[in-house]
Amino acid sequence: MVDEDVVATTFETWTALQKATDQTRANLIADIVGHPQGAPSVRELEYMNPALGEDAIRRHLGVLRDVGVVAELVVEPGNRVRGYPYKFYQLTPQARALFDRNDLFPADAWQRQYARVEKTGEIAELEAMPRPE
What we know:
The chain is mainly α. 56% of the residues lie in helices and 8% in strands.
């Protein structure tokens, strides 16, 4: 579940663009946009960005979350499955609108690119997992 009030009050266009255009964060955003459900887990992002470790990915996602570019979707404790991720990351509506206005991170292009990457069985299974709303 996403707290839209927090996102709406913390989104500043210039800051969002500044943080989103860092090379590493831009790669993560492209993978979020390209993901079949638009909300990958850290494990999926790590698979797509093998040079980054889990801690670095979480740090970059934290920066993007703090400026309102991404929102964290969390599976409720009673619905979590052991051994599977329970946090997923998606673009906020404000970020998607900003990127669309500036022709950044076009969904069709990044979805085609993401689909071309060969996935392991584990990653394919994670991609197919239902996401919280």
